Structures
1.
Amino acid sequence: MHSAYMQTNPASRASGDGETANAATHPREPTWSVVEHGWNPQRANYFETIFTVGNGRLGTRGSLEERHTGALPGTFIAGVYDAYDSPVIDLVNAPDWLDSEIFVDGLRLDTESAQVIEHRRSLDLRSGVLHRDTVFGLPGGARARLRTERFASTADRDLCCLRIEVTCLDHAGAVTVRTGIDGNRRNLERLPTYREQTAFGHERKWDKWAKSTHLVSVGARFDGAVGVLESRTIDSGLDLAFALTCSGEGGRRHQRSRHDGIEVQWHFDVGPGETVRVDKLVGLATSRDHLAVRPERERALDTVARAGSFDTAAAANRAAWDRQWVDADCSVVGDDRVTQALRFAIYHLLIAANPDDPTVSIGAKALSGEGYRGHVFWDTEVMLLPFFLFTQPRAARALLGYRHHTLPGAREVAADNGTGGARFAWESADTGREECPRYTPDGKERFYTREEELHITADIAYAIIRYAAVTGDDDYLFGQGAEILFETARFWVQRCTEDGDSLVLRTVMGPDEFHSHVDNNAFTNKLVHWHLRQAAAVYERMSRERRERLHDLMASIGLDPSEPAGWRAAADRLRAPTDPDCGVIEQFDGYFDRTVVPIVDWDAHGMPRLPVRYSPFDCEATSLLKQPDVVMLLHMLPDEYSMATRRLNYEFYEQRTMHKSSLSPSIHAIVGLQVGDSRTAQRYFERSAFVDLDDNQGNTEEGIHIASAAGTWQVATHGFGGVRADADGLRFTPALPGSWQRLRFSVHWRGRPVRADLGHRDARFELLGAGPPVRIIVWGEPVTLEPGVVVEVAAP
């Protein structure tokens, strides 16, 4: 039976479940917030991570304004790195713009000095605002309420805002509010080696780490009522300026500065039930800001001046978030908890990327913590980029811009390893040079990823081709994209070695980091084969369509006209599993000879436990996998293999995978759905969706698993929603879990959003924006979308 579809006027459409089409405007509150009820110091670091506020320019962890023993606060500015006093470069823990203290009748309101009677915090995912409401008990039975709001503005990414309100609930009292900017910040450096099984309580565990210093103060003073703190990174020499304005009605104001901080104090005499308020605006500027030419101090001062007031800034921030959610929202009718998890993931993705700065990228913990030192991995291209590509194309373009910005560093990495062309670092920061540490933080185990995990270079090529295919942005493809593709193809040709009639890649590491020093990793070889052919194809297109641009590029990088043919020849000779009916693909030479160690134990979250006597660093001789390797290959290049081959390999490797990377469950969910294993796919989806909300890996306190957030979105849209975008256009093959009634999201295709409202037996689509009709394929049948007209399609 063929699919049937009809067109309707969107103005007359009913939503069926009472929810309007624009859920961001009329939200259901539980799905748009994450809430902390009560104060538990043992969970404080967890909430610091998930309550991170940010805007892609910076991220600030959700620590209490007044801090507590065991707090791990942090503000991280994209692109601000420093290597002073540390073995590898760090994303700098920047000056603390939240620094505050509140006193009532001389008693400091904090979780240790006063009794916590009530405590509630709520992160509003719609607007990126963190709300706090704490009632403290005072000596003699009196009570005081502390309320705060904070956000990093998405309307003006140089602006941060904090509102503090204090109420003496049942007595008259003297209230002091001190708030400022503290430049005395450190980064965690290294955890010394202690006896096995040594554990430290939440109050002291961060004290046990050695610390790194990256900032020195170069000025702190007030000009009138506006304060400015200026700092400089010690090794990289970046200048940072923070400007502060602070307002309060009816109080007495005092301001002070020290060499590494500025602060304002407000003193109020408060009657019973009376509330006092202090609003704080902070402007930020750095010397590395993209396209900035004026001094940092001037730009920071301009930011707080143009912000006006807290309320004006809050309204602008909310409007900017509403615009983002129109394209980014993804919701499930019939499962509010999954909808909350999806929106939580999307929120953290949106605060991780800055579409206005093509010189920065997203680290493995985004801007929410010090995990992985803020370094950029392959996660950005294979996990994060699809979300931005289909919902925020400008941000996707900026993320790819980072790779071109750091291309000189990639050329240096290639040269350092004895080849020409460009090889992207496994871990990069501001320059593109290799920043991967050689040892674990405690110094006990050696990493070989910096030397051997080469596939990132092909992963970046993959992202470039995907971006061009979805957006149709040939100007990018034939410009920065082509330069990266050509330079990296040169690297691969020289990195391959002769082996009889074949070319091979020796001493590499695939995505599965349990196995190092392997030859002919199937994932790497196949991606390199694909990469070389794509680079040659782009060269051929440019020779037909952009000859002048190609001539200029060849001249700038010294490309010989014979080289592209050599890329194709190398691809044809490279040993790679290309037979679509090859059966089980051997992950690398000799993998089938490794000892089979069955997985027999799972934790409370359904995550596999390593077998007794094994650790992540002694699985080399086993068949156990850290994360998908061949299965990742099937995910990225599904059309290269028959369904029978994909199903066979999924079943073989799924039972050997430990999922010790947070990106692992989502990839297994997507591939599981493609091969018909929906039950297992739904289980993996839940692992991915709740990795941070449920802290199911036990390390959320170190920062958000941002790759898992992006993977969760991919499972929903590309897995259950059945989205595919390729040379044939945009396709949908929905297959929703039985408990879901409908799945709603938008995707951008060739510069125009398509809204999808998918059910089990029907689907609705709407093309937005001016332009010609667009043909999509739904359940295998072509459907034509006219702008502004809802099309309803029945399942076959």
2.
Amino acid sequence: MPQQPTYGPHNPHPLSQMRTELIWEGKYDEYGNRREVDIAGCAMPMQKIESIDEPRRAAAATGQLELFEQQNPRVDDFRNRLIWGDNKLVMASLLQEFKGKIDLIYIDPPFDVGEDFTMDVPIGEDKDTLEKDQSTLEMVAYRDMWGMNTDSYLHMMYERLTLIRDLLSEKGILYVHCDWHMNYFLRALLNEIFHVDNFLNECIWYYYNKMHDVRKPIFPRSHDTILSYAKQKGGHTFNLQLEKRDKPVTQLVRKKVDGRMVNARDQDGNVLYQQRDERTVDDIWRIPMIQPADKSQNTGYATQKNELILERIIQASSNEGDLVADFFCGSGTTGAVAERLGRRWIMCDLGRFAIHTSRKRLIELQRKLHSEGKPYRAFDVYNLGRYERQWWQKDRLQGADEEHRRVILEFFKAEILTNPPSPLLHGRKAGAFCHVDGIDSIFTREEAKQVAQAVASAGGRECYCLAWEFEMDLHLTVNALVQELGVKLKLVQIPREIMEKNRKAPPPFLEVAVLAAEPVYRSSPLSPSGRGAGGEGLRTVDIKLTQFIPSLAEVPTKELEAIKERAIKSGFDFIDFWAVDFNWQPGKPFTHDWQDYRTRKDRSLKTISDAGYTYPEPGKYTACVKVVDTFGCDTSITVEIDV
């Protein structure tokens, strides 16, 4: 039996020489080498899908663009960005353009990996609500991403914090919002990535107005922690902040004499005092939580933070014109405050409901700033689209189409066909066939006809058509195929949540909503350029919604039957937001020429636009109508215009 080595002063044990280090599973590879973040493999082109400059578009649609440009308070140096996608991929994709250029980053990552988040979302014009569960909020996406354990959480945050460090400018600062669940781990992780010498503050947000459960045998928890680190200590931006005192205080007046601070006195030798109603902000922030009754800023988003927190951070650690980012943006508070304070911004989130909530909030802010004559910037909505899917297929599925179909069908809980009657039919579910479209494809009218013919030839009557993207206005084709072939195609969106690492539970598969609209023509005064083709003045155009039946896949089962009946009778109650691009071009971003939406304060919604849009010349045009339902799911159709 080999003799065990003797450890001592001349033969120190390896553990005795190790430095303090936070280690988690995944930090080192099988050979003991430090895993680096795969930046090159994650970088991909981003696709601009929407362009939003609401005040300018409203002026253009009504022929008042020249007056708008003369009085334009818009700032044209930068178009802000709202990006839907995995923030690791988004940040890696931003590095080429923004490496070392972001001046302030605030993140509020989920930090309770076991908590369920629910919220009530209003529907219709009354006070009715539906419960929105965790899967709908997509908080489950983050929970699944780190596998509900500390090791995967730390590795997920390590990759993202490393990318954040690379994006920060030399004067940049990072603020990380956390609480008792993970703050001790995050502090150690940040010390390693940013270096302990660049630590700035551990600020305590004391939310004194929180309601407590006094039945718990602990002191009630009433604070979060906000950690801040500089990219380069000493060169970072910091503006001293003052706050009002609850009551003015009387203080001695002090001055420096011969290098010492002494009491100031008048000519008669009396000690001088002064009344102070302000004090320097320290690292204890006494800021209330948002209450449900606060309609001034409450979006109803479960984890929304008070704007006062972001005001303090942005004013202290950036200057006007600086670039601010938030890669877990939630309800968009960072962007909204940055916009108000004259900063440029980039925001990103994994959840479609977060992107929808942020988009609506920022459009409302554009309108408000414009009406007050204050400057604002336009913003664009981006996603990673098919590039993100290609990365997922290459990284997780070994590039195989068959593996892609298998994963989709397994999440859809469908049987995989080993000997299909047609190459277009890939599975079965509840007696219906399943077709899974390609990872780079858009499911088209022609493809729908081919699938329906294959189903009819196989003796089937129904088929689920699962696709990442659908050609617009497919419902007309689907209805025609029922009459022609007796085959009902069910159009089902493949949820991007299936791409999440460690995802095991199936996410909701949404059947595409039914949407119909038509043009409304109105007479208008003669245009400056002359008359229409028939000698008459050019007509103005609006859009009327004629039908909307939402997809109900995200409605809790216990409420499904009652909601189905309401959805068929009053589908418009489920519309939260709709917009029109009056001159839509295939392959171009959707331009918001007009929009209307419900707020928690005002539940009314127009079903006919009031843009009075005037086209430059007579002819045929295509308008695109986008509707977002109360669950954050969007549906688009095109409407042919003839003026």
